[in-house]
Amino acid sequence: MTLSSMTGFAREAGAWNDYHWTWEIKSVNGRNLDVRFRMPIGLDAVEQAARKIIKDHIARGSINVNLQLSRDAASTAFKVNQEMLDILVEVAIDTSMRNHLPQPSLDALMGIRDVIQYIDKEEDEETILSRDKILLKSFDSSLKSFMNVRDTEGSALQIILNDILNDIEIFVKQAGELAKEMPEIIKKRYMDKVNALLDDKAGFDPDRIAQEVVLLATKADIKEEIDRLYAHIEAGRRYLKSDGQIGRKLDFLTQEFNREANTLCSKASDIRLTEIGLSLKTLIDQFREQVQNIE
Question: Which domains does the chain have, with CATH numbers?
Answer without folding.
Answer: 8-72+125-151 (3.30.230), 75-119 (no CATH), 153-291 (1.20.140)
